[in-house]
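Hi support team,

I've been running sequence recovery on a batch of backbones for a student project. Most finish fine, but this one hangs at about 90% for roughly twenty minutes before it completes. I'm not sure whether the input is malformed or the queue is just slow. I've pasted the structure tokens below so you can try to reproduce it. Let me know if you need the job ID as well.

Thanks,
M.K.
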């Protein structure tokens, strides 16, 4: 269309190339940008802005990609919702973010409508893919978008001390003309190839998925979107579609690494240039096996929704410096600080603090949390513990003391404890992670019962499942006469947890 400058460079150079394909719907770059412009106009007409967000509750699909790009063009802010969550959990995110519009899919419609209704979002503002969404989108033309500021997600993260908080970073809200170059540069930092075919199975509601998606769109990639990971299908796609790149969380890498040698040998996997992982430590045996089978194409990056990365570790780095998560990108300074706020020398363990060239993040609606995460000089932390070696390579000792990493998903014990403690039979409760051979960690609950009360582990787990997403619920429950608390009430959780963690 005349008067339109495409946002993506591939739309200018090769508009008829496939941009995204989910197995049901395939869009060229020109078609993707056309739909994105319609969505940008639709968002504006619906009153959505950076201060009045909207929310997406959907599994991976082509529509996710067009909504992501449409939000970028509109300059608005979207809240990506984990589709494992229950309606009350989603309602909290909608309320806290101030979302005024929800887009979902048919399989999640009931949950979306229940959550929206509970926070006062009118049913007409819950749009369902396949039943209303398309009409909303296509009621607007695909003409030029007047907005000049790039939209961004409001990513929710949490901790062990309270409910999830939305993260607002200073690198969001850039001019549109800088967004493409900036996301492409980020892809370069994490060693993403300059062009190719990417298979995305990691959830697009996660910061990892959305970050890789933006970079791939701006680095000339055709994107294959899958709503779940199957290791055999993944290898088939690499062989049949010439997949060059894939983001995988460690749980998926473990499943891939467990395949027999013949599964790798029977397919031509020579196109694969880059597998990146983040969100949790990858078991060394799995990482080494994939390097042996696929070559040194494994790149780890450390980061967070708050912007503590990327810290990059190539296969070569990892083999030469076992345990490292790599070197920070040029715009990131990492330091290690003791409990008194003093910087520590190389090799000494402390809290990792970060300084970004563009400033520190803030937590939406929680200035106290924002202040508590920063030092007076502006450096900030997410509570991870680690150290630096003499050459500046970073090592993690613990990803926050109590954080549970279940299959690459952050699980926050305080939230679970708050729910379990409501059970009439529960007097005291502690939740922590214990080793799991597939998911890295699983959720364990330690419970002290009220005097005279009776309760079984399965009964408590079933009770929790009515109130929490499945991945947050305990897999097992231990019962104690009394949980170990200090005189002032602090729970000595490590006394419970350490029994399950050798050394």
């Amino acid at each position: 269309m005349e008067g339109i400058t495409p946002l993506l460079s591939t739309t200018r150079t090769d508009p008829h190339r496939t941009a995204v394909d989910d197995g049901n719907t395939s869009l060229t770059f020109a078609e993707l940008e056309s739909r994105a412009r319609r969505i940008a106009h639709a968002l504006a007409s619906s009153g959505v802005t950076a201060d009045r967000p909207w929310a997406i509750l959907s599994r991976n699909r082509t529509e996710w990609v067009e909504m992501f790009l449409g939000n970028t063009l509109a300059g608005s802010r979207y809240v990506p919702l984990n589709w494992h969550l229950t309606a009350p959990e989603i309602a909290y995110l909608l309320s806290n973010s101030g979302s005024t519009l929800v887009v979902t899919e048919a399989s999640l419609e009931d949950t979306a409508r229940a959550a929206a209704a509970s926070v006062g979002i009118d049913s007409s503002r819950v749009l369902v893919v396949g039943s209303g969404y398309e009409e909303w989108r296509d009621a607007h033309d695909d003409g030029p978008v007047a907005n000049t500021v790039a939209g961004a997600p409001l990513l929710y993260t949490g901790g062990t001390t309270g409910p999830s908080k939305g993260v607002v970073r200073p690198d969001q809200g850039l001019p549109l003309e800088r967004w493409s170059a900036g996301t492409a540069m980020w892809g370069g930092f994490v060693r993403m190839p300059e062009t190719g075919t990417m298979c995305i199975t990691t959830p697009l509601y996660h910061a990892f998925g959305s970050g890789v998606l933006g970079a791939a769109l701006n680095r000339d990639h055709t994107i294959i979107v899958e709503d779940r990971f199957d290791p055999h299908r993944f290898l088939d796609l690499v062989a049949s579609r010439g997949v060059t790149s894939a983001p995988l969380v460690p749980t998926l890498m473990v499943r891939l690494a467990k395949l027999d040698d013949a599964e790798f040998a029977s397919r031509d996997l020579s196109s694969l240039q880059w597998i990146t992982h983040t969100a949790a430590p990858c078991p060394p045996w799995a990482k080494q096996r994939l390097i042996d089978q696929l070559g040194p194409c494994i790149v780890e990056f450390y980061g967070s929704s708050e912007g503590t990365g990327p810290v990059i570790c190539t296969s070569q780095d990892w083999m030469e410096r076992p345990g490292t998560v790599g070197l920070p990108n040029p715009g990131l300074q990492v330091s290690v600080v003791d409990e008194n706020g003093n910087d520590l020398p190389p090799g000494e363990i402390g809290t990792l603090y970060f300084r970004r060239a563009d400033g520190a993040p803030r937590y939406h609606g929680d200035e106290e949390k924002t202040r508590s995460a920063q030092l007076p000089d502006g450096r900030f932390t997410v509570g991870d513990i680690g150290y630096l070696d003499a050459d500046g390579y970073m090592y993690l000792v613990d990803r926050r003391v109590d954080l549970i990493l279940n299959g690459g998903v952050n699980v926050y014990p305080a939230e679970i404890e708050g729910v379990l403690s409501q059970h009439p039979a529960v007097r005291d409760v502690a939740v922590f992670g214990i080793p799991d051979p597939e998911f890295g960690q699983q959720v364990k609950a330690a419970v002290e019962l009220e005097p005279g009360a009776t309760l079984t582990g399965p009964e408590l787990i079933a009770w929790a499942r009515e109130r929490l997403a499945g991945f947050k619920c305990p897999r097992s429950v231990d019962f104690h006469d009394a949980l170990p608390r200090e005189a002032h009430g602090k729970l000595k959780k490590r006394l419970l947890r350490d029994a399950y963690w050798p050394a």
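--
Follow-up from support: It reproduced on our side and the slowdown came from queue contention, not your input. The radius of gyration is 23 Å. No action needed from you.
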